[in-house]
Design goal:
Number of helices: 13
Radius of gyration: 21 Å
Strand order of the largest sheet: 2-8-7-6-5-3-4
Shape: globular
Mean pLDDT: 94
CATH superfamily of the largest domain: Type I PLP-dependent aspartate aminotransferase-like (Major domain)
Largest sheet: 7 strands, mixed
Bound molecules: pyridoxal-5'-phosphate
CATH class of the largest domain: Alpha Beta
CATH topology of the largest domain: Aspartate Aminotransferase, domain 2
Distance between the termini: 31 Å
Oligomer: single chain
């Protein structure tokens, strides 16, 4: 054992860090970013706003990010039609950070967090690195569905302090049956229930948001991000909405001044241009639906998606297909589910390149399967985590 290993927390020894490959390839469809650059109008507005800020960087930023919270609550009112006060909004450097604030405040040693696998791999990673016990809840093995009965039974069996739901779910893409949220709140009376809505803006029409439940549920947390539909992954801004009292408790665990002046300013400018920042969403949804129908025609089994990506099964050997696509300059995601890969919906050209490559590969890579898909355990060791 090396000297560092000897000193390291025993539960971290031997683990591998989060590692979605960041490769320089022509068609990058592996981390569900937007393929569309920030529009020039927003770039110029951000530069102008920053100019006024830079001389003031000798001072700490607004610790309570007041203006940004106002901008986020105005955005939610417009996008989701839900009225929330700035005091109900909390933000961090990506929604991963706000998720970690929730676990820091409501999890911890001796407490348990429950999630339903396969789901976002950062949920167990955040949980375990904060010394909280992770419980891998189950979904239906073939369809990855989570029924109301199954979710409630598992939630009540484990009496968790935190429950993670994800809707639309990553990596499967489908929105959760809405009743699951209320059922889990009832079945886990001692839990803060987190609904991770990172992909909410891509959901099919008529998909309700958990934001509409906040008024009745002081233990409910809805997380969102500017990384996906908002085309702002590099800006690192994620946020959550909850009761004002719950949000106030998060101030106990955040590091002071966690959102830099420039982060607050650029995010605020981006939110002022929300329509423009979101202008590619409809085009991305159309490409997503084209991926689903295109893959179905090739004999693969894509899962219906409310997000900007598609999980598809029916691959004889997903690792071979992943490599063959990469050899053709297309990077997709191996999420650790046998016979499956996940692909982000990019531009029309990128989608076409992906579907053309899959058409070439289909005769030797896609086939009828007799073995059921098995879900790899969500551990650090797989190295196949999700963004
Ligand atoms: C991408 C993603 C996030 C976003 O993380 P950020 O830290 O905001 O970039 C959160 N949850 C899920 C399910 C995701 O897929």
């Amino acid at each position: 054992m090396s000297e560092v290993d000897r000193l390291l927390r025993p539960d971290l020894r031997g683990r591998t860090a989060y590692g979605a490959p960041q490769l320089d390839v022509p068609v990058c469809l592996n981390t569900n970013e937007s393929s569309y650059p920030v529009p020039p109008v927003v770039v110029h507005a951000a530069l102008e706003a920053l100019e006024g800020d830079l001389a003031g960087l000798n001072r700490y930023p607004d610790r309570e990010f007041t203006d940004l919270r106002k901008a986020l609550s105005a955005y939610l009112e417009k996008q989701a039609g839900v009225s929330v006060t700035p005091e109900q909004v909390w933000a961090g450097n990506g929604s991963n950070e706000v998720l970690s604030h929730v676990v820091q405040a409501f999890g911890g040693p001796g407490r348990t967090a429950l999630g339903f696998t396969p789901s976002y791999s950062m949920h167990p990673i955040i949980t375990e690195t904060l010394g909280t016990t992770w419980v891998d809840g189950l979904r239906e093995s073939e369809t990855f569905e989570l029924t109301v009965e199954s979710a409630a039974t598992q939630a009540s069996a484990h009496d968790p302090s935190v429950v993670f739901l994800c809707s639309p779910n990553n990596p499967t893409g489908t929105a959760l049956p809405f009743d699951v949220i209320g059922a889990v709140l009832d079945a886990a009376p001692n839990a803060v229930v987190v609904v991770d809505e990172a992909y909410a803006e891509f959901a099919r029409p008529g998909t309700p948001s958990a934001l509409t439940l906040l008024g009745d549920h002081p233990r409910l947390v809805v997380t969102r991000t500017m990384s996906k539909a908002f085309a702002f992954a590099g800006g690192r801004l994620g946020y959550l909405v909850a009761s004002a009292e719950l949000v106030d408790a998060l101030r106990l665990v955040r590091l002071p001044y966690h959102l830099s002046t420039q982060t607050q300013t650029i995010a605020r400018v981006a939110l002022e241009h929300a329509d423009l920042m979101l202008s590619a969403v409809e085009a991305i949804k159309a490409e997503r639906d084209r991926i689903v129908s295109g893959l179905r025609q090739l004999g693969a089994t894509p899962v219906d998606s409310d997000a900007n990506f598609v999980l598809f099964g029916g691959l004889l050997d997903e690792k071979a297909t992943w490599q063959a696509l990469l050899d053709g300059g297309i990077l997709v995601r191996d999420v650790g589910i046998r016979h499956h890969l996940r692909v982000t919906a990019g531009t029309l050209e990128e989608t076409t390149r992906f579907l053309d490559a899959m058409a070439d590969l289909a005769p030797t890579h896609v086939g009828a399967l007799t073995t059921p898909s098995t879900v790899a355990p969500t551990t650090f060791e797989t190295g196949e985590d999700d963004a």
